[in-house]
Design a protein that fits this description.
- The chain is an alpha/beta fold and about 550 residues long.
- The chain is built from 15 helices and 18 strands.
- The chain has a seven-stranded parallel beta sheet, covered by helices on one side. Strands 1-12-13-14-18-16 form a six-stranded antiparallel beta sheet, covered by helices on one side.
- Strand 13 (about 510-515) and strand 14 form a beta hairpin.
Length: about 550
């Protein structure tokens, strides 16, 4: 007899047009690396439109576009020079409208990235601030301070940028401006009403163009307490541990005043526009970002940061679904994105010796990305199993371009070709995120593997050929077809946001039940286990009889 270990109540909210996002499969596109339609080596908006049939066949419910705005690319487009336009290297607003129409005609929703913490240093407002006097309204849009020292020659504090190096840069008249990220990304002053009103204008601009939702970059950093004296970097790090909303720079309670205004705007539309917060905060702090009075959803990065381990996966899923049930938000699940080492690679590397740390792959890349340390086959096998596990969970699934091809991280990009500011500002400490942003392989033999008729903006390795769409398209057991089959079956089986854990004699096996008789088993162990009764609808690897091998997942109905 099967024992129910944990059950969550089904949501009372119907899965209608207004709540499509609650259990959606969302595919993240990094536009400059997806498909190049004009042969300049850079992916573009028309390239996305060209590949709408591919997205349709893949079976995703929505596309999330990383920034496509005018940008000097100091941070891969996350340094925005104009929030209400398209980078001319990527296309025009007319191209954007055609892409939106093509996606909607295919039944695919559109989510776009909004970057509210900082602009590009090329933004008209920042250029105006540089030309303006101290204390001017132009400078009040950003965070300018006088320096320390006899002549203000020292920065206002010893704060360190997320990308390494100081978080303050001095301008010609001696003042300093704050940038929590690259120096080309000056932070906005969100105490200034003009900033708030302008972002409301931006959200309305894109909503009126048919955008269905927004992904909010660094959603936990907008509000800051810069009361004098400024705390030291060490004090900031200590305050982060409190998780009580009083940190001067991160996850402040007053940031939710901003999102309440945004929610009021989103709710003016029918259906309401959606939003998801990128908020790297403690689990206890996540719910406010995901509340119905706020953005409605927040990324859960817990699975992304976990090793391939049954106990870890079970604990993470249980805690996050309980949180969702208590708050009314829907869970989000993600393994890869534009900021992290691809999960096929992470799962193919040895676990770190420190049990308190999980394998993120960064040290391996920094050390040169030795192939002798990477078990590619094991990593991909585990990635397929983990993804099939994740796609069966209640909530929305976020997929990153190329994971459906089983792509590994490109670890050996020459230093001369790297673009990520984390590499330039953290020399000898981090190689950066370029390895997951390499343009996709569409064919096995054409120029740039079918991505472009020109040299791509990041070099592609020769092994991309075996992962190309053209190679996997008709191969029944390919990773691409596993994703297609899983997404199609997921859509047909998906029902209320309910999950029941079922016991299994092997602690390395997770077994859960979803409504409609949908059962999922994932074997995290090293030996095969027998499947229970039921028809196998899908498995991450071919099965022999009723045995589920190691590092594999099966769906039963």
């Amino acid at each position: 007899m099967t024992e129910i270990l944990h059950a969550l109540p089904a949501t009372s909210q119907p899965l209608d047009e207004a709540t499509w996002w609650r259990q959606a499969a969302v595919y993240q596109i990094y536009p400059r690396s997806f498909y190049d339609a004009n042969a300049d080596g850079l992916g573009d908006i028309k390239g996305i439109t060209t590949k709408v049939p591919y997205l349709t066949e893949l079976g995703v419910d929505a596309v999330w576009l990383s920034p496509f705005y005018p940008s000097e690319l100091a941070d891969g487009g996350y340094d925005v020079a104009d929030y209400r336009n398209v980078d001319p290297r990527l296309g025009t607003l007319a191209d954007f409208d055609q892409m939106t129409a093509a996606l909607h005609a295919a039944g695919i929703k559109l989510i776009v990235d909004i970057v509210p913490n900082h602009s590009s240093d090329q933004h008209a407002w920042f250029q105006e601030a540089l030309a303006a006097d101290k204390g001017s309204p132009a400078r009040a849009r950003y965070i300018f301070r006088d320096g320390q020292g006899v002549n203000g020659e020292l920065p206002p504090s010893d704060w360190v940028s997320v990308f390494g190096g100081p978080a303050w840069t001095q301008v010609d008249d001696g003042q300093w401006y704050l940038h929590l990220f690259a120096s080309e990304q000056p932070d906005f002053n969100w105490d200034n009403r003009e900033i708030r009103d302008d972002f409301l204008k931006t959200l309305r601009f894109w909503s009126d163009r048919g955008v269905d939702g927004f992904r909010i970059d660094v959603a936990h950093a907008l509000m800051k307490d810069l009361s004098e004296p400024l705390p030291s970097q060490a004090q900031i790090l200590e305050l982060e541990k409190l998780n009580n909303g009083t940190n001067p720079l991160w996850d402040r309670d007053d940031v939710h005043e901003i999102y309440a205004e945004w929610r009021a705007l989103f709710n003016e539309y029918n259906p309401p526009r959606t939003a998801v917060a990128e908020a790297w905060v403690d689990q206890s702090r996540r719910a406010r970002y995901a509340s119905t009075e706020g953005l409605g959803q927040a990324f859960n990065f817990d699975l992304l940061m976990a090793d391939f381990d049954a106990e870890s996966f079970a604990s993470i899923v249980t805690k996050n679904l309980a949180e969702s049930a208590a708050t009314g938000a829907s869970s989000t699940w993600v393994f890869s994105n534009h900021d992290v080492v691809r999960h096929a690679t992470r799962y193919g590397l040895p676990n770190l010796p420190d049990p308190e740390k999980t394998q993120d792959g960064k040290d391996w890349i920094l050390a040169g990305g030795a192939e002798t340390e990477l078990n590619r086959d094991l990593g991909l096998r585990r990635a397929r199993a983990a993804t099939l596990f994740m796609l069966a969970l209640p909530g929305s699934a976020y997929l990153y371009q190329g994971e459906e091809l089983g792509l590994h991280e490109v670890a050996d990009i020459p230093d001369a070709d790297r673009q990520d500011p984390a590499f330039f500002r953290n020399t000898g400490i981090e190689k950066g995120r370029d390895g997951c942003r390499v343009p996709l392989p569409w064919t096995s033999s054409e120029t740039s593997f079918g991505f472009s008729n020109s040299q791509p903006h990041l070099p592609q390795p020769s092994w991309f050929a075996q992962h190309a769409v053209s190679v996997q398209d008709s191969h029944e057991g390919s990773t691409l077809n596993l994703y297609r089959n899983a997404l199609a079956l997921r859509r047909s089986l998906q029902t209320t946001e309910e999950l029941i854990w079922l016991t299994h004699p092997d602690p390395d096996v997770l077994h859960f039940h979803r409504p409609n008789g949908w059962r999922v088993l994932t074997n995290f162990g090293t030996t095969a286990v027998e499947l229970p009764e039921g028809t196998v609808a899908l498995s991450s690897v071919p099965l022999e009889g009723r045995m589920l091998p190691a590092d594999a997942t099966a769906w039963l109905v």
